[in-house]
Amino acid sequence: MAQSVDSITGAWLVGVSGGADSVALLLMLRDRPSLSLRVAHLNHELRGAESEADADFVARLCEMVDVPLYLARRSEIEPALSNLPANPSAKYRAVRLAFFEKIVTVHKLSGVVLAHHADDQAETVFLRLVRGSSASGLAAMSPDTTIGKLRVVRPLLAHRRSQLRAFLESKGQIWREDASNESDAYLRNRVRRILGERPELREALLSLSIACRELRTWASSAAPLLDKQFPVDALRSQPIVLAREAARRWLVEAGAPPDELTTQVLSRLIEMATDAATPAHQTFPGNVAVRRSGRTIRHEV
Length: 301
What we know:
Distance between the termini: 32 Å
Strand content: 15-25%
């Protein structure tokens, strides 16, 4: 179910980086009487004094709006986590989500609210498209989803980056700019620049995301639910769209990062079920070890 700012009620955590998008989200949520908010900020310790200044800014902002803040450093969270992705961006995301999940669990909150918006969505679809993502992956970010045990809502997916900045300017509210967002060293920044110059591409990518989400919704309801150990016929007998969705869901539940589940990766699991000549022991994203024994497939923890 889609979420909007007005539809969120109860007790929630808000992820605030200090950037314009998350600051706008916090201000949109703070005065709603049906909400009890807490803020989380993870200092990634990647930009020295700039990272420290981000944390200080968020602390002052939370004091101004009278919202409790949970602040942590990546070096405090990361050592306790295992099987982190090798890709730095995916690893930092996993650390953030683990931090959020701990707060949500301890304080019995409904979940975390994140500030991803329409431009983020278009960039994500572009990146997944060039990486060979499945149709399910091209649905990109969901407005309301569960990652592990953490419920994540994104009420700003219909809003543009420019709208959020205009909102802050109308309030006279400042925000922090991350200088690394301008660096061509990062693929997402290069994609952002391309889409800024070609707005028609952005619109097409958003339309593609909506179509793929509709397909994913249908496939999710129709695809079989696979147990930790399942018979090869459970995939072999399915149309390819449903087999891919079942494989995707099974790998995610086993701990595979959703962003890394390309069509090629899903096909590899399906081939394990349909072709006895394929290797009987394979490793999938997230270091998920999968073994075929006879006519049964299982993942190993």
